[in-house]
Structure formats: structure tokens, C-alpha cells
Amino acid sequence: MKTLHVDLGERSYPIYIGRGLLAQDLIRSHIKNKQVLIVTNETIAPLYLKKTQAMLAGFEHQTVILPDGEQYKNLETLNLIFDALLTHKMDRSVTLVALGGGVIGDMAGFAAASYQRGVNFIQIPTTLLSQVDSSVGGKTGVNHALGKNMIGAFHQPLCVIADTETLNTLEDKQLAAGIAEVIKYGLLGDKPFFEWLESNIEKLTNRDADALAYAIERSCRDKAEIVAADEKESGKRALLNLGHTFGHAIETASGYGQWLHGEAVAVGMLMAADLSLRSGFLSKDDMDKIVSLTKRAKLPTAPPKEMTQAQFIDLMLRDKKALNGVIRLVLLQSIGEAIISDNYDRTALNKTLESFLSVKE
């Protein structure tokens, strides 16, 4: 087991990464009182709920099982968590345990941030994407029909328990979606990691346990450093949104659940790289390397053909980074060096959109 730390003063917490962690007694020391609510979904419950309940023997624990899918990450489904908390008369000493992927982690975390104005929660991420990204950093929330993750709060967990054995039951498509977020860390600030990925990407797609463990640890370490420096995204943390402005537009336009988040981010990173190239920031050689790695990771490389340029622009203007009616983007100066910019050629943005929307996959 590896243990990393997110250094946030009194809100600091550990990230545990390793095999078989659901069989270990890691969770008890982080729960301050008896009441616990496990939040999971219909897919994960049959696989890992009993193991989680066994870890909580002796606690007064209850479970709420939500429908599975990004399309359920909304206020209506969030209310099911509040219904369970109130039905079981849980007070402000309760600890919520998020058992599942990014949707469960975001929703349970937002419920914890909101219930009685804030209670504790613990992340047990069960997908690669949630283990390397969404479970770390305290971003919680739900989607709105007009924009992804527009309703939420910053609320840090007590700990993150990433049991890599849960990846054994992950579908190939979900694994690839997680690899997209892994690639993101190499692109935005860790060139040696990107170079490691170029040499080892097939090990990840083939589920090599050691390679996956290393990628998870390296990704979490990179994110923990950024979060510690900028917890509430007033500056550097926005770099973690590389590809997300384009990607969130794809998810919103397609209807949540049609594209996996990591798939949309993969295309979004390619679009950001293409705009960086057109703007004179990124070299053609670096662009070719990014495209090659994305394809080798078995990720999509073009947005839905039904989308239009006008639709992209409209949705990107609703992005959380947009300011005073200007789309601010994370762009690449090189592999391993990202910037947040509104100083790009608007004509180049239109050409990027036109180029990608003309691709027929």
C-alpha cells in the first residue's frame, strides 16, 4: 500500500492506494462517531457493498443505492440521499461513505457538504477515473440540463481509499476513460510521466497491475500537489481542466450518459492541443505525440458529428472558467507545460471546431 497526503492544513487527508484495501481496517480511524450512510449504485452494490459493510461492523450503518449513470447525476437523484439521511434520523455526526465511481463520489460529497450545512464523508473510488482524479481534491456537485457540474461545493473528504482490485471488474470502455485523465496529468505539468505513458500505455490498456498502480500513484501525487497549492481553483488548479471546456460541451450536448466523461475529455484535450498548435503555442511534433497516445489508449478522437460550431461556442460560454462573456481555455505550450488563456486567436478556435466536426469516425 502507498499512502499519499493532500496537504490542506486542518483539512489534510491521506490517499491510500493498493490491492485488497477493502479487506483492511483503514476506515475506522477516520470515522468519528457511530452513524454512517453508504452511498453506492446498482452496479457497484452487488460487487463491493458487503465488503464495505464488513469494514463498518460495529457502526450504525445504512445504505442508499442509486441508479447508475451520469444521466442520474442531478438534484432529483441527490434527494434520495437526503431522504435516506432524514428517514434514518441521522444527525450532523454522520459520515457518508461514497462507494463507486465519479458520479457517486460527486453526489455523496455534495450531499455531505449540504446536509445540516456540512458533515464528514469518505471516498472509496471504484473506477480508474475516480481513483486518479475525481475522488481527490474536494470538488463535489451535480449536473444541470444546461451545464455540467454547475451546482456544487468544495468539500474535502476525510480520506480516499483506492483499492486497485476494484478495477478488475471495470469494463474496457471505463478503463480507457480513466486513462484519459491519466494522460491529462502528463500533458499539463509532468512531461516525464507523459514519456512513461508513451512507453507503457499498452500495459495500462492490458490491465498490468503494477503499471496501473504506478499510474494511479503518480496521478494522485500530481493532483495532490496542485490542490494543496490552490484548493478552490483561484489560479493553478484550473489547469486540471485541460480538455474539460470542450469535453463538458460534448457531454451536455449529447445528453449526460451518452459519452463517458473521460471519453469527452480525451477529445477535448485533442481539441485544446489543436488550438494550441494553430495559435503558435504547441509544436507539430508534440501534437502528433498526443494524437498517437490517445489512439493507442483506445479513446475517441472526434466529437459527435451531430454537434455544430454554434452549439460548442454556446455551451463553452457557460463553462465555469468563462469570464465576462469570454471563453477561457487551458492550452498547451508544450507537453508538460499548460497555461490558462483567453489570449488565443478566435479564428483559430473556429478552425479547430470546423476541423474536428468534419471528422467522420
How is this structure best described in words?
This protein is α/β, with parallel strands linked by helices and 361 residues long. The chain folds into 2 domains: 2-169, Rossmann fold; 172-357, Dehydroquinate synthase-like - alpha domain (Dehydroquinate synthase-like, alpha domain, Up-down Bundle), CATH 1.20.1090.10. Helices cover 44% and strands 18% of the residues. The protein is built from 12 helices and 11 strands. The protein has helices spanning 45-55, 75-87, 102-114, 128-134, 172-189, 191-205, 209-229, 244-254, 261-278, 284-296, 309-316, 346-357; strands spanning 2-6, 13-18, 35-41, 60-66, 95-100, 120-125, 139-144, 147-154, 160-163, 329-334, 337-341. A 4-stranded parallel beta sheet has the order 4-3-5-6, with helices on both faces. The protein has a 3-stranded mixed beta sheet with strand order 1-2-9, covered by helices on one side. A hairpin with a 2-residue loop joins β7 (139-144) and β8. α8 (244-254) packs across α9 (261-278) and α8 crosses α11 (309-316). The model has no long low-confidence stretch (mean pLDDT 96).
Quick summary:
This protein has 361 residues and is α/β, with parallel strands linked by helices.
CATH class of the largest domain: Mainly Alpha
Rg over C-alpha atoms, rounded to the nearest angstrom: 20 Å
Strand order of the largest sheet: 4-3-5-6
Category by helix and strand content: alpha/beta
Sum up the overall morphology in one term.
Answer: globular
Give me the CATH architecture of the largest domain, please.
Answer: Up-down Bundle
Q: Give the CATH superfamily of the largest domain.
A: Dehydroquinate synthase-like - alpha domain
> Do you know the CATH topology of the largest domain?
Dehydroquinate synthase-like, alpha domain
**CA(first)-CA(last) distance:** 41 Å
Helix content: 40-55%
Could you list the spans in which at least 5 consecutive residues all have pLDDT below 50? none
Strand residues, percent: 15-25%
How many domains is the backbone divided into? 2
The ordered string of helix (H) and strand (E) elements is: EEEHEHEHEHEEEHHHHHHHEEH
